[in-house]
Design a protein that fits this description.
about 90 residues; mainly alpha; 434 Repressor (Amino-terminal Domain); globular; disordered C terminus; DNA binding; Lambda_DNA-bd_dom_sf; Cro/C1-type_HTH; HTH cro/C1-type domain-containing protein
């Protein structure tokens, strides 16, 4: 699973679990609602850093919290700086 796929899955789950309206979240994140819809629903649409930052700020969550990252479950970020995995 790619970073984009993981991010989108977890973001959708968070929004559903917390009854968050996508248009309101898009507005708070500073993202056009049509672009936000593309982010959520278009599997070939990449998520850019500024969009991730806006979404994190709007939700009040860190990227790790959104992705539920930990060393064992996600290859993109390690909890330990010395063994961080970097992928492009």
């Amino acid at each position: 699973m790619t970073f984009d796929e993981q991010f989108k899955i977890e973001l959708k789950r968070y929004m559903q679990d917390n009854f968050i309206n996508p248009n309101i979240l898009a507005s708070k994140a500073g993202i056009n609602k049509h672009v936000f819809t593309e982010i959520l629903n278009n599997t070939s649409r990449k998520v850019y850093g500024d969009e991730v930052a806006g979404i994190c700020n709007a939700t009040g969550l860190t990227l790790k919290e959104i992705l539920k990252l930990n060393k064992k479950d996600n290859p993109y970020v390690s909890m330990n700086k010395s063994s961080a995995v970097h992928r492009t």
